[in-house]
């Protein structure tokens, strides 16, 4: 009795690039979608391993829908589907038998309707059932190569022979050449014909089957026909792919299949010399049609064993092997991209990540603002500060450690280093720079350094998109306010009192065709909103002189800076995601409960954009207020900006050194002399700032 | 012509303990007070340095008002005053001449009214003018030893002689003995009398002056009188203290002063052997009274030179020399104590610093909460968390670095280490512990570990004052809520949605005499407030099963956690500083604008204490809402707590393993069957939680 044929099972292998690419697609494209994903696996022809099966390799190219670029001589392609469940629970609850039967039924259909005759790659199919833990980079997956269970037993009619015994050297050489010229997708199954003259040629499966069927009818043998398949297996048995080829022959040439000796070539590797010829035959059956029907109605089988030789999923943990810095970047983006899955699909994360942020002040607010920017994935952060880390800073300024205070590091540098310690790929910079301030007289000895500071500050404002004003005095905010207005940059201002805070966006400025602000609009546009100085009736002066210790330090309830910093960054991000951007209409307090989401002038993707948020920890209230642009503002009005643009450094020096210079220049001095000042002050729409950190006088 | 006398100037030296003590007093006691501070300086008798003057030493004992403990044989005490200005500007603007004249005028008065005759230490006085930069530990100070400018010139009648030449060995020995027995305050000036028999005795200044004046009248010399003074100077000249002694003699025995040779003993060191005898005399004046008047009306002089031999302040920078860990502690306290100077004088910082806080969950909220607690100077923080730092955590969880993620450290340990890196003296702990949860079935294999977890958690809740619920699922908060209710601990709860947050304090529970909550109170007391579960109509279950990635992670706008954490800690601190503590009446939203500060049931030192704060980043609104205590709550109701107290572990296991166990036990199941459920739900006063991080169903 002849020996019956066993089929060596297939094995697959996933490259880490496969999962990396999948993570990317899952987060950016598939999101919550659990639909089947098409894949291309490949068997390498080059690196055939003697001891093991040549595995079906899945890598980052597996997701490529464009097959042309994958058509190369060095591999055999195999088509497949992957289902990735969103939860581990769903993964566990999938019944493997049902899964392979429903997902693999294409194989049966493609055989029966003849599709595979023209598209031989459809005769094999692999299935991946997976669950990916994207937080931990842990992947659970299980691969199947579906094939009908009830394949009739086949028997060896001769012992398997090397191709070199069956064919002449010339024929082997031709086979090799022709095979390599085949399309990667058609290398998996084809027919080899040997003419009477001994000429070897490759014909497709359809022609092979036709030839066989014709020959059966005419009973004449004008050529030898061999059915060939790429065989990733290296044992003396034929590999799993032969099963589906047998099914095809059983369906399309049943008489031949159930009565004749069929010759197969198992193509192994790229040289073909190692290929094997199998001559096989079924048992004789009384009613072969029953056998055939049973075959095509049987369940599908073909789940791979895992590395423990058990039927079950393989677990890949890539958190250790992936480059930590890249892992970190990917993980950070993951959290952000999750927002797009369900909550804010239209969120433009690129806009946020690519933002260049300049943080003036690396104290309590500066550190907290940087941390929220980190959370939003902002890649470019520059700190400007002239002071050093002191021991009283570390518990409130969240980027500094005890060692920074011991080493008395510059805050700007310590803050930069802290960001790099959190996210190595971030583009962070620290600049030690003293900002020139009105009322802080610049003597001769300081001329050079003041010039350099101004130039550097101008360069920094120019090169950034957003400027955060997080400084510890009112006058330190003056020059940055001038520069932001002159260069039309987004300016976000935050200031702390003891138990209250103010967070504000500056309005935009148009110096080419300035108009008076529209004071009547219920929700003023960006161009009509004020800056930090628009409700002042004196120019900023030296507030550091003659201040006691508790006035020098921002004495505030420690939770306050986190709250204000959180609001400052969220205000910025909401503004960036608003269709009108910085020109967005400002939400005011009393209209807060009656917002129509369809009012796109007011409502952006992330909600409304107030001008000024004032909050208190005393009664947990938040007020949204408005200050209008002031045409005699000492920081952002037309005469000020014109003079700055004209005279640069000498303007700044005059502002620092000459008392009331800015009041004169802006026209504020004239206004203060007017008899109707009280009414005017009322019109200025000002709100008491008495609780703020700098304690300067403003109109009550 | 005889040589006229030059006086060697004095020198002082401040020990670092002087400034450390001053910083303490300034922050805790003096605060903004700029009034003069009394000081005791001392000259050491032991360590007389040959080359230099023996400096007037100021150290931490200088502030001691209780002189007795300072009365020792090893030093000579000197009295003084210090003025410390609050600002550098004020320091700079003080005119030194005016300062010494006004502050030193006591010297003149004390001489003229005879006070110094009884209290010789009042004959010398030192003045310190200082400005202390408490942020940088930099001290500017300038010391003066006031004495009238127009002291008549004195001339040596003999060359200065060693005491050993003037006195017998026995007399020297006696002088030495007597001197050492003098009070530290009277060592500075006294009289030495030698009887006809050669016996040396020490008499006070008053007796000395009396003796001299009597002798002038009676013209008989029955004993030798020497005026003695402790002389810190080591030159051959007499030291500065002699000047005021001369003034005293000029005033109280003018005839003697202007006509006779006066003998002085300059006492040097503790052995007296090195002391010097000076015999001095003034010029002859025609009208000595004019000279005397001029002397007593003249300006005062006596400012020390600094180390550059210039008249000007000395700068001491102690930031480098002080122990960094202690510096850090002092600096941290400084920031806090500044609040008491002006803004909240009654703030009880001890209560906050000594607080023991248990943070359940060391994720985004846990890290931010810990940072605000650090800012408040809280000394005892324990983290409980069972997970590890992953790469997606670092940019949002503000205690972790990239390296923590690479090393995959347990969050509880990494968080503890981070706190120690910020404040080395903090008492921080990390506990890796998995909290048993309803719906998460405990199998046999987990029994032991569940038992241990429960015991550890019970111990932790017991040993802490406050429990923060910062966990990532609703069911994880159940057991901590039960434990806090059973042990009556302060529980603060925070939860995040995408752009909204909830911060809440749990109500208190009284299980000895439970009453129905008063639903009518406008501002319910702590005992009538609900817990996190009081508005649920199902028991907490396994919400982790079958959740997609974006549901597993808290997908929230990054600023949100900082805001919620800031509010959670500030709510706690406000509560601690409220006279009613955790029983304080809850502020509700609609009464926020009409708060009477005198309503002490409602308003605490740091404002009002709501029950639940709900905020949104969409329209920047904050709502203050109330949930009443629910008598069938699945976490804090009487039947639940009674069963927990009765059965401990087996109760917890039943809660984890038996579906609906808690609903049955609490009576909730019965209520849900009632036909009037809809009305009941309305009465439960619930608010939609649909935006919260755990997504469990609650009554809308």
Automatic annotation (TrEMBL), chains A, B:
Pfam families in the record: ATG7_N, ThiF
Predominant cellular place of this UniProt entry's protein: cytoplasm
Function: E1-like activating enzyme involved in the 2 ubiquitin-like systems required for autophagy.
Keywords for the protein's UniProt record, in alphabetical order: Autophagy, Cytoplasm, Protein transport, Transport, Ubl conjugation pathway
Domain THIF-type NAD/FAD binding fold: 339-580
Source species of the chain: Bombus terrestris (Buff-tailed bumblebee)
InterPro entries per record: Atg7 (IPR006285), Atg7_N (IPR032197), Atg7_N_1 (IPR042522), Atg7_N_2 (IPR042523), ThiF/MoeB/HesA (IPR045886), ThiF_NAD_FAD-bd (IPR000594), Ubiquitin-activating_enz (IPR035985)
GO cellular component: phagophore assembly site
Oligomeric and partner information: Homodimer.
Localization per record: Cytoplasm; Preautophagosomal structure
Name the record gives this protein: Ubiquitin-like modifier-activating enzyme ATG7
């Amino acid at each position: 009795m002849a020996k019956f044929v066993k089929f060596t099972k297939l094995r697959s292998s996933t490259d880490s690039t496969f999962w990396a690419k999948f993570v990317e697609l899952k987060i950016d494209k598939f999101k919550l979608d659990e639909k089947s994903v098409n894949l291309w696996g490949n068997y390498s022809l080059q690196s055939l391993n003697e001891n093991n099966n040549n595995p079906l390799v899945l890598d980052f190219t597996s997701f490529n829908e464009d097959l042309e670029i994958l058509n190369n001589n060095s591999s055999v392609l195999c088509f497949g589907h992957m289902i990735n469940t969103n939860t581990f629970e769903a993964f566990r609850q999938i019944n493997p038998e049902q899964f392979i039967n429903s997902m693999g039924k294409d194989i049966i259909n493609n055989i029966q309707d003849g599709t595979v005759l023209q598209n031989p790659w459809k005769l094999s199919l692999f299935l991946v059932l997976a669950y990916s833990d994207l937080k931990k980079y842990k992947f659970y997956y299980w691969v199947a190569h579906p094939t009908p269970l009830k394949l009739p037993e086949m028997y060896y009619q001769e012992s398997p022979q090397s191709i070199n015994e069956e064919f002449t050297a010339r024929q082997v050489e031709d086979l090799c050449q022709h095979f390599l010229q085949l399309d990667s997708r058609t290398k998996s199954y084809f027919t080899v014909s040997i003419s009477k003259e001994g000429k070897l040629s490759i014909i497709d499966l359809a022609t092979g089957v036709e030839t066989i069927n014709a020959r059966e009818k005419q009973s004449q043998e004008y050529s030898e026909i061999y059915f060939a398949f790429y065989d990733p297996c290296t044992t003396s048995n034929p590999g799993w792919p032969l099963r589906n080829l047998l099914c095809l022959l059983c369906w399309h040439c049943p008489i031949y299949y159930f009565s004749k000796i069929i010759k197969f070539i198992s193509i192994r590797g790229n040289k073909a010399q190692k290929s094997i010829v199998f001559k096989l035959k079924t048992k004789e059956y009384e009613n072969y049609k029953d056998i055939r029907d049973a075959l095509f109605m049987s369940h599908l089988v073909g789940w791979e064993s895992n590395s423990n030789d058990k039927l079950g999923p393989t677990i890949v943990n890539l958190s250790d092997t992936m480059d930590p810095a890249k892992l970190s970047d990917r993980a950070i983006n993951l959290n952000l991209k999750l927002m797009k899955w369900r909550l804010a699909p239209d969120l433009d994360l690129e806009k946020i990540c690519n933002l260049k942020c300049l943080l003036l002040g690396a104290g309590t607010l500066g550190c907290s603002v940087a941390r929220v920017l980190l959370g939003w994935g902002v890649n470019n952060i520059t700190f400007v500060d002239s002071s050093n880390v002191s021991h009283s800073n570390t518990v409130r300024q969240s980027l500094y450690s005890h060692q920074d205070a011991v080493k008395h590091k510059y805050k700007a540098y310590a803050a930069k280093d802290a960001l790099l310690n959190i996210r190595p790929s971030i583009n962070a910079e620290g600049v030690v720079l003293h900002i020139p301030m009105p009322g802080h007289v610049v003597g001769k000895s300081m001329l050079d350094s003041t010039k350099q500071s101004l130039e550097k500050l101008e360069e920094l404002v120019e090169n950034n998109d957003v400027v955060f004003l997080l400084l510890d005095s009112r006058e330190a905010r003056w020059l940055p306010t001038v520069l932001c207005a002159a260069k039309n940059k987004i300016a976000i201002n935050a200031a702390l009192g003891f138990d209250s805070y103010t967070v504000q966006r500056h309005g935009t400025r148009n110096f080419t065709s300035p108009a008076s602000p529209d004071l009547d609009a219920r929700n003023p546009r960006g161009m009509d909103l004020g800056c930090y100085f628009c409700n002042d009736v004196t120019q900023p002066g030296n507030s550091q002189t003659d201040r006691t210790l508790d006035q020098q330090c921002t004495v505030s309830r420690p939770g306050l800076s986190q709250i204000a910093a959180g609001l400052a960054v969220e205000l910025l991000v909401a503004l960036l995601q608003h269709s009108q951007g910085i020109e967005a209409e400002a939400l005011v307090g009393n209209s807060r409960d009656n917002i129509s989401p369809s009012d796109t002038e007011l409502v952006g993707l992330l909600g409304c954009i107030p001008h000024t948020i004032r909050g208190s920890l005393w009664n947990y209230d938040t007020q949204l207020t408005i200050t209008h642009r002031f045409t005699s503002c000492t920081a952002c009005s037309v005469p000020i900006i014109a003079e700055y643009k004209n005279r640069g450094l000498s303007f700044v020096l005059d502002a620092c050194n000459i008392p009331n210079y800015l009041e004169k220049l802006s026209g504020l001095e004239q206004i203060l002399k007017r008899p109707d000042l009280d009414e005017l002050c009322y019109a200025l729409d000002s709100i008491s700032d008495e609780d703020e950190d700098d304690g300067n006088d403003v109109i009550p």
